[in-house]
Amino acid sequence: MENRNLKKFPAFDFAQGELLLVNKPLNWTSFDVVSKIRNSFKPLKLKVGHAGTLDPLATGLLIICTGKLTKKIDEYQAQEKEYTGTFCLGAITPSYDLETDIQQTFTIDHLTKDLIFKTSRQFLGMINQVPPPHSAVKVAGERLYMKARRGETFEAKTRLVTISEFEITRIEFPEVDFRVVCSKGTYIRSLIYDFGKALQNGAYLSKLKRTRSGTFHTDQAYGVMELTNHIRSLKDCHVVQS
After folding, report:
1. Of 22, 57, 166, 202, whose CB count within 10 A is highest?
2. Are 100 and 48 within one domain?
3. Which whole-number Å values give the CA distances from 188 to 82, 145, 178, 192, in the listed order?
C-alpha cells in the first residue's frame, strides 16, 4: 500500500513497495537521505530510491520509494511541485545560491515593489530555462558541478518548463519571499537568477523548501531519524518483510 501513516500502520511490506515521505534536512543531499534509510534495513538488502532531487541547501518534501515501488519513481517525479523560499537582490553567485561566494554586486536603489510584482508575471507559463552551472545535469557524460569545481565553463541545453504560479509573498529589500508552483525539471535557482537579469540587476537564492509534490505535502512527511528509528524498531520486532 502507498502513503500509509507510520503511527497508524506499524507493519510495512517494504519489499513489495512503500512510499515514504521525508522532510529533508538542510545540508543533506538527497542521496544522504536514501542511504540513511537503506542502511536502516540492514542486513536486509532492499531497493530504495527518491523521486526528485533536492539540492543540499534546500529542505522539504522528498518522496522515497522502496522495493517494487521504485519502478514508479519516474511517475512520482513527473508530478507538479510547489516551493517556498527567499532570494536576495543586488548580487549574484556562481551557483545561483549560497553554495558559493558572491561574485558581483549591484545597486538596488532603483528597484521598487511594483517592479518586483510586475517582473514575476513575466515568468508565468512555459519558459525556457538553462540549468545552473553548479547542477547535477550531465554534459559530455559528466555532472556540471564537477566541471564548475575545476573552473571549466560549460552550459547545459535550454529546457522548456512550466511555471503555473509565481507569488511574491514578502518584500523587505534586499530580501524577497516567494511561492512557486512548477513542472518537473524546473530549477528554482535558475528562475531566481533569470529574475535578477529581468530586473537588469542580480539575484541569488538564499532559502528554499519543497512544500508539495503532486498530492503529497510536507505536513505528511517524517523526519529522517524519526523514520529510520521506526524502521529499525519494526525490524527488531520482526515485522519488516523482506
Report:
1. 22
2. no
3. 10, 16, 11, 6
